[in-house]
Amino acid sequence: GSGTSPVTTPPAEVITAAYKYVFSFVDARTDAPITDTLTIQFTGPAVDSGEVLDSSNSSVKGKSYTTTNGLIAAAANFNGSDDVFSILGGNLVKGWNTSGVQILRETSKLGEQVITVKLNNNNNAAAIQADTTLGIGMTASSTTAGAGGALPATTLSTADKTVSNAEGSAESVGTAKITIPVNTVARDAAGNLASGTLKLTVTKYGNSDVDALVAFPGGFTPNVTVCSGSELSGGAARGSGNFVTGGFAKFNLTDSSGKAIKKFDTPVTLTIDLPKTSKNPSTGATVKVGDSYPVWSFDESTGKWVFEANGTVQDKNPASASNFEVVFQSTHLSYWNLDYFASDNCTGSINIARNPTGDTRPLYIDIVGVEGSRYYRSISGVTDSALTLLYSPRINVNVTIKDSKGNVVGSALNQSLCNGVNVSTSQLPTITYATLQTNVTESCPDGVTGKRSVPTYVYFYDNSVYQGGYTSTGSSSIGNIESGLNGQLWVWNRLTSQWSTSSLTVNAPTTTRDVNFPNLQCVTGSVTSAQ
């Protein structure tokens, strides 16, 4: 025969889930999308019950995914039973610490949302330590496992540095330290003995800097596992409280292939600095030497924080004007977190008085607990003026509002979310908005025959934020883009799991871009061709 026709393949299922997410994994130091391959996993009750779906509308349960541009999409058909899941991503071979966020139905918004996950790279320890705009300290060293996985005596500590805190004042990041006794036997998670040259890294996250707080895995309204002996010995229901953090740290030991060494036959000693301004949220009292302070570890396989012990607050040696320290022991490595779990919360609110009145440009909100009661939450792409915030902590916070370029356009200090925060924006400059219209198709290899619309999602990245969302028809309109912006268009073919990316400038009133994937299998006579 002489005709050419596409082989009939079923279109991808339409994603009708009420909650649609795209997760953007970025470098915490530069905010650039991560282009190394990241391994992504989903965990939690909503995953176990099949509520969380990938971009092909299939359950994510028991699967792992990869991304090479930092983007991965998911959706959720929450059924009301236990509507919470976590997404975790990383690649220790390339130096990327595993981290992620927890998603709750009650704190998600209906429809489409882009959620940023910030990862730190252990290979950039010197640059991270030297960056005084970043409230993160990092150090790296090497050690060698001897016969039978035995390690030499090792001590490694980050160096302190001073950064600008959420109130704009200079504040110490503090330090974190690991001490490994001589002849400690080390193993990976599967129990295999450590061998060869090992890389040890310690990362200290300050508790007052947004760039550090946003890297906190699991979120501040956490899914927690508690044990007898903790202040939560009766257990904690999802959403029943919030972390108020004294700071957190990540301890990594990896072999030459990037595999994590996790277990020790002898306890190692871990030390994390605690600001002297830290308060107990239950009593309001400032901590003092001799107080107990709860210590938690992050389970990267479940996305949960696990209560480990009540550490003891003690003076540093030599004494520090800024920090106490909490010392504890463990036989495993992970993220470690000094946190009170504030079990009482409220439905909070933020009301934004926009100038000019009626302005609907996307705004970005950072909520940081005041000094002594540090907490963090971010809200992206806000186009309205009244926000309801479930599971808000009963502490005072600082609210900062930024535009899409990161310029601060409004703030309110030392306010109670429970009583409602009122904040006005400055007089925002007049902006001409444009719409980006994208038409996505696929076809036979000739680019013409058999052309049909492709279920997809489309994102425009203006080197600051992502805008866009899902579509079931192949046509997508993204509004509220400032006219004249240059950026990248990211298009995902949900039938073939392919990305297309291109640069463009979006100009008012409408800029249209057609994207075609010439990858249908097509038949010419008795010959089948594919591309």
Protein described:
Mean pLDDT is 88; it is low at 228-235 and 526-531. This protein is globular. Strands 10, 11, 12, 15, 16, 17, 18, 19, 20, 21, 22, 23 and 24 form a 13-stranded mixed sheet that branches. Strands 4-6-2-9 form a four-stranded mixed sheet, with no helix packed on it. A four-stranded antiparallel sheet has the order 5-3-7-8. The protein has 531 residues and is an all-beta fold. It is built from three helices and 41 strands.
How would you concisely characterize the structure shown here?
This protein is an all-beta fold.
The fraction of residues in strands falls at: over 45%
Q: Could you tell me how far the N terminus lies from the C terminus, measured between alpha carbons in angstroms?
A: 21 Å
**CA-based gyration radius:** 25 Å
Mean pLDDT: 88
Main pleated sheet:
13 strands, mixed
Assembly level: single chain
The count of β-strands is 41
Helical/strand content category = mainly beta
Percent in helix: under 10%
Total DSSP helices: 3
Q: Low-confidence spans: pLDDT under 50, at least 5 residues?
A: 228-235, 526-531
